[in-house]
Amino acid sequence: MNTSNIQFEQYYQRVRVRQKREALSWSLVLLVLYFAAGSAAEFNLFTIWQSLPNFFDYLSETIPSLHWSVLFTDSHTKGSLAYWGYRLPIQLPLIWETLQLALAATLVSFAIAAILAFLAAGNTWSPAPVRFAIRALVAFLRTMPELAWAVIFVMAFGIGAIPGFLALTLHTIGSLTKLFYEAVENAHERPVRGLASCGATHLQRIRFALWPQVKPVFLSYGFMRLEINFRSSTILGLVGAGGIGQELMTNIKLDRYDQVSITLLLIIIVVSMLDTLSGYLRQRVLGEKK
Length: 290
Prior knowledge:
Elements: H1 3-40, H2 45-62, H3 81-84, H4 88-120, H5 128-143, H6 146-157, H7 161-185, H8 190-197, H9 202-236, H10 244-253, H11 257-286
Helix pairs in contact: 4-7, 4-9, 5-7, 6-7, 7-9, 8-9, 9-11, 10-11
């Protein structure tokens, strides 16, 4: 083995030792922080272990008692599918309301966030005070969780879909605007400089140089946010912000265990369908489907 190979092997071993030492040190630091945070939050694994049987007992309570001999009989026969789903005429419109809530909030938020993103980006020639004000505003909007916004709006407007719509819209604007203006700032500058050399205005550079680059990213984030908003809207119903979540909370409070299970099943089915549909639309709109 020549001298260069020996030197390389020694250097490699030193790097490996340093990497292992750093990995061990950071792992120990993170472990200490984890246990310190758990202690401050009174998080106890032993309590969770003791309570697990109660969790599984509750899950077993929600499983409907279906009997094959009467499975397809009318809604008055206990053990039939119709008896289990006797509240479907109430639950299906609430699922539809939840979908409408998520879609309306996403569309409005997408349009507002797209405008704010170009005003907040550092490469779109907007004044610095405007950029700072918009970034501070959207940071505040996304810092407040949807559930907190929903509680505030329920107290202001009462129970219904309006608090849920406003809560989802405000939080989505905050989240999408940040993602959008970062995408704008990461766009290539060469098309912008080319239009500028031809005498194009700021608006024309945005329209013909920046927008074509960021449009696929905007749409992708928009579809992703639609999926998130539907899941969030089911949670907002727990505080009276409309939708299927309100039905779920009512069933839990009234100990209607069989209806808890069918409500959860409906939510899972719709979320799965929405994920599949949004993925298909994303492929079609962004030109990814072959």
